[in-house]
Request: fold
Amino acid sequence: MSQIKLTPAQRKDHRAEAHHLNPVVMIGSEGLTDAVKKETDAALNAHGLIKIRVLSDDRAGRESIFYTLADELNAAPIQHIGKLLVLWRPMPPKEKKVSEDRMAGPRDVKVLKNSSRYGQRPEVKVLRVLGNQRLTPGGNVRRAKKPKQRSAKKSAQD
Reply:
């Protein structure tokens, strides 16, 4: 795999976006292991733009880790400053898990109602709300309002 090539302007924008980020991957004394590569790949899939902290004092070693990760994970090297590395890769499109024929079904809602005996603790009641119902601010279940039907003659006159 090859690295993603970015223009200096794009790299500058990504550096600005990464400024406030915290490192999500730490590379310790073991160096670049398969577990580190796997974790970095997962972080790039989840976030797109990540910071990596390398705890080694060897600058040449950090530089090689930076470009090795970028090359093997098909990411763009954004910045290497001190012990921090910044990588970017476009996020993959998310798949929708919802089927098209899904309808609104019943759901259970917890409602806090005042006790019928005043001065007592409020009661937590679990109400089942169906697809054609709604919950009012008072905690009651009502049918959802349907739009008012208009006659064909009146709609033709408009």
Residues 48 and 91 are 5 Å apart (CA to CA). Residues 34-47 form the longest helix (14 residues). The two ends are 64 Å apart (CA to CA). Residues 104-142 form one domain.
